[in-house]
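Methods — Computational structure assignment.
A single polypeptide chain was analysed. Its primary sequence is given first, followed by the predicted tertiary structure written as structure tokens.
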Amino acid sequence: MVSFSAMTLVSTAFVAHVGSDELAGVGLAGVVGFALVCFGIGLLRGAKTLVSQAVGANRKDKIPELLGAALALALVLGAFATLAGHLIAPLLVSLSASPRAGEFAAEYLAIRSLGAPLVLVYAALREASYGVGDSRTPMHASLAGNAVNIALDCVLILGLGWGVQGAAIATIAGNITETAVLAWPMRAQLRSLVWRPAAFRAVWAQGVPNGLQFIMEVGSFLILTVLVARMSAVDGAAHQMVLHLVNVSFLPAHALAEAAAVLVGQAVGAGKDGLVPKVARRALAIGAGYAGVCCVVYAILGGVIATAMSSGDAALAERATMLVYVSLAFLVADAANVIARGVLRGASDVRYAAVVGIATSWFTTPPLAYLFGVMMGLGAVGGWIGLAVEIVVGAALFWLRVWRGGWRPAAAAARREMAGSAV
């Protein structure tokens, strides 16, 4: 996840070098593109939970059928995402304050959406690897994909001057690379895939709440991005730039959440629920510590970093610096938020996580972004204030659930299901 955040920062810097309209367009299209695959990514996390619980219950015989179900879902949902991307791309022109930025957004999404099946197939393979405790192979695949992406950004954007098209092509090449690098060592498992409708239904049932939560939360964030994009090209570019900067703090916490989900799933499968709070506390300590260091760095060097990434655009540098300082209010809470969700997912307590996640995202970020950003004229800063409220409130509610043990009935039901009894 650190390598991924570095890759997105580098790609953002390359596009920012071309112009603020290009950066704003790529930012808008990037959020829309992720919205198209986020249901599938969230759903496929259900496979990781089931695989980890199967490992804990000593039922590794179930893994081939779970992986087969995940790959089937990935291919179907990826095809729908590609089709939807080409239908939606022309509409982005009217969603930006700058028609030129909107054209770049449409161009980027039309190309980028071609890689949607690859993104979801990689997610299916990665979740299965995580479930059995193998995080190194996906790491190698991610590093290879990111290296290819950055190298092609240099060649296509800086060398050949392909701009937004080059950024999209480089990303797809990175998707191809990481999928191939991950699939090769898993080739024996892929040859032994088993298709069972029961496994398909199990992955679907476990993953749908995650998928709905993802798509609703990304929908809320998409509204924020559209509101910011319609304010001005500078607001849209600053939003995109600082978002990737904040990912340097958020994505490692996301990795900790994935680790916590796997360890909790294995503990639940083995009937050792007493380990769950210990995993949660240790993941929180590491995540909060790392996010705290990022807070200190951004507080001291945030303005310098924003200015360096703005390629001499003083207005963009000023707006981005303001957003960096707003982000200090939620960086630690962001880590706590995502780690608690991972713990709840590992325990199969996916419905609570989905309901709270959807409620906090829709009742805070969009209305507060409109109030502070549009009505009160604070621009992108107002939108990020709404985002801060969502993250802090959500973190408090998720951790209250973890500490009080509200996940235990879902964990017990998951064990009965793994044992083959009716739930």
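Note: The first helix runs from residue 2 to 18.
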